[in-house]
């Protein structure tokens, strides 16, 4: 396979993720909290912090669902998270990603009995160097578990990049937005449970079916590694 | 023989057909699987998960301390630190109350020790019909994380009894993390409060009872 000889700018192997670190219970006043980050060899990070509040009564009242509990995610990029300051506050992109994160997490939550209630997940991106939504999902999954929310499983998320014709695991900023050789770059974030069931996939760019299946396989393997990091962080929080 | 370990959601606690799924667990084809983060406990055949973090989850029979939030024609709504309504019905008061004078018994902002006698879709139902329950008139209230309550109470009440002995205060620990301390003087009450805060901060160390005894001796000097 050609992928094995392919040189990434960061010097990583095609299936090598950036260095991961995770921490649980980082926000004392939240009901559950966690931080997840990827740090590249160049020292640039993707760092997400998640705080869970609730279950609490849903306000405004017209949004209450008497049949089941609601999950509400808020994704936000801090103004200092990228090299050029970004305008703070919600925008089209963050609203969309919030919804995506919610959909990625909902399948594992068992919140049916929390009628009229909401679980708020606030995710802030402290450092952005691509794959922020994946880091956000990883942090949110740990924070939800830490908050004692009933869940079937923990989810882990990773992005697969297609650089020209090659597949790489865990794209960084260069691979995400600078690379433009041959067919250019496309980015495929995916989320899996620890059992290898998929809860979320997004594709922007072109990829054929065979290569997509290959990408899913790579992501599933990478998520196993992420799961171990999440598991370790959760177990360490109890002294 | 009880066996304990920390588990995360989706983790298999016990394999095979020999075990029964208890609270926080579910039986799947892989065995007994944890459905929440916490401490898995195998006692005999039963496997359950005790939560270690998160908001207070009311349970039937829990004694809680709540603050009156609202008064209706037939009872009171109490805030017990849980998002659902906690209703104390007029019928669950061990004395006659004039229907026009509910606020004379307990007004908004008053606190009461109550017991949870039912949990249903509409919320939590409280009762005052038991010993040691009722409105709180004096003393101080300390709020802690509800997950630390078992440590404050200690094995068969050993920790709370020790603090009671050393300070001479009367202490009631609500399962929702609200603690009522009543002593003869404010100094004693504050000492008891400090002792409770000490226990919650050091809740993870073993031999905490000895530690708190030492702490009291140092405080005496």
Describe this protein's structure.
- The complex is a heterodimer of chains A (239) and B (221).
- Chain A has 239 residues and is an alpha+beta fold.
- Chain A contains 4 helices and 9 strands; from the N terminus they run ββββαβαββαββα.
- In chain A, helix 2 (132-146) crosses helix 4.
- The termini of chain A are far apart.
- Chain B has 3 domains: 2-51, RNA polymerase II/Efflux pump adaptor protein, barrel-sandwich hybrid domain (OB fold (Dihydrolipoamide Acetyltransferase, E2P), Beta Barrel), CATH 2.40.50.100; 63-136, Beta Barrel (OB fold (Dihydrolipoamide Acetyltransferase, E2P)), CATH 2.40.50.140; 140-220, Ribosomal Protein S8, Chain: A, domain 1 (2-Layer Sandwich), CATH 3.30.1370.
- Chain B has helices spanning 102-105, 149-153, 158-167, 186-201, 208-220; strands at residues 2-7, 12-14, 20-21, 25-28, 31-34, 38-43, 46-51, 63-72, 75-79, 86-89, 111-120, 123-127, 134-136, 140-143, 170-173, 178-182.
- In chain B, the strands form 4 sheets. A 5-stranded mixed barrel of chain B has the order 8-9-10-12-11.
- Chain A binds chain B through residues 25, 31-32, 54-57, 108, 110, 115-117, 145-154, 193-195, 230-231, 234-235, 237-239, and chain B through 6, 8-11, 24, 35-39, 51-55, 57, 83-84, 121, 204.
Largest sheet of chain A: 5 strands, mixed
Biggest sheet details of chain B: 5 strands, mixed, barrel
Our Rg estimate of chain B from Cα atoms comes to 20 Å
CATH fold call of the largest domain in chain B:
Ribosomal Protein S8, Chain: A, domain 1
- In the residues of chain A, how many domains can be counted? 1
> Could you name the CATH homologous superfamily of chain A?
GHMP Kinase, N-terminal domain
Q: Indicate the mean pLDDT of chain A.
A: 93
């Amino acid at each position: 396979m050609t992928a094995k000889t392919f040189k990434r700018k960061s010097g990583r192997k095609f299936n090598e993720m950036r260095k991961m670190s995770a921490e649980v219970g980082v926000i004392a006043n939240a009901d559950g909290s966690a931080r997840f980050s990827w740090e590249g060899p160049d020292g640039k990070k993707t760092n997400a912090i998640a705080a869970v509040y609730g279950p609490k009564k849903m306000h405004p009242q017209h949004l209450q669902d008497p049949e089941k509990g609601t999950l509400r995610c808020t994704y936000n990029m801090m103004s200092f998270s990228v090299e050029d300051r970004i305008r703070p506050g919600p925008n089209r992109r963050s609203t969309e990603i919030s919804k995506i994160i919610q959909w990625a997490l909902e399948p594992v939550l068992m919140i049916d009995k929390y009628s009229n209630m909401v679980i708020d997940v606030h995710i802030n991106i402290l450092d952005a160097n691509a794959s922020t939504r994946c880091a956000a999902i990883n942090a949110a999954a740990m924070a939800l578990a830490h908050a004692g929310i009933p869940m079937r499983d923990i989810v882990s998320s990773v992005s697969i990049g297609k650089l020209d014709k090659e597949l790489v695991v865990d794209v960084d900023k260069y691979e995400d937005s600078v690379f433009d050789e041959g067919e250019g770059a496309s980015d495929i974030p995916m989320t899996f449970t620890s059992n290898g069931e998929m809860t979320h996939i997004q594709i922007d760019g072109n990829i054929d079916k065979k290569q997509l299946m290959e990408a899913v396989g790579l992501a599933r393997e990478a998520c196993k590694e992420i799961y171990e990091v999440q598991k370790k962080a959760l177990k360490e929080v109890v002294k | 023989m009880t066996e304990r370990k920390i588990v995360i959601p989706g983790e298999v606690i016990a394999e095979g057909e020999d075990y029964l799924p208890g609270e926080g667990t579910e039986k799947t084809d892989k065995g007994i699987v944890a459905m929440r983060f916490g401490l898995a406990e195998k006692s005999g055949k039963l496997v359950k998960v005790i939560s270690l973090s998160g908001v207070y989850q009311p349970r039937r029979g829990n004694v809680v301390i709540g603050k009156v939030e609202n008064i209706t024609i037939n009872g009171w709504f109490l805030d017990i630190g849980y998002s659902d309504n906690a209703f104390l019905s007029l019928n669950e008061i061990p004395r006659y109350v004039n229907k026009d004078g509910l606020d004379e018994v307990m007004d908004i902002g008053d606190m009461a020790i109550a017991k949870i006698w039912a949990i249903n879709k509409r919320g939590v139902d409280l009762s005052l019909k038991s010993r040691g329950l009722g409105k709180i008139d004096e003393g101080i209230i300390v709020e802690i994380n509800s997950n630390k309550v078992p440590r404050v109470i200690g094995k068969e009440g050993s920790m709370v009894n020790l603090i009671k002995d050393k300070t001479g205060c009367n202490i009631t620990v609500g399962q929702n993390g609200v603690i009522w301390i009543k002593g003869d003087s404010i100094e004693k009450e504050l000492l008891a409060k400090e002792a409770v805060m000490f226990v919650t901060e050091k809740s993870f160390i073993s031999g905490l009872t000895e530690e708190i005894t030492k702490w009291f001796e140092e405080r005496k000097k």
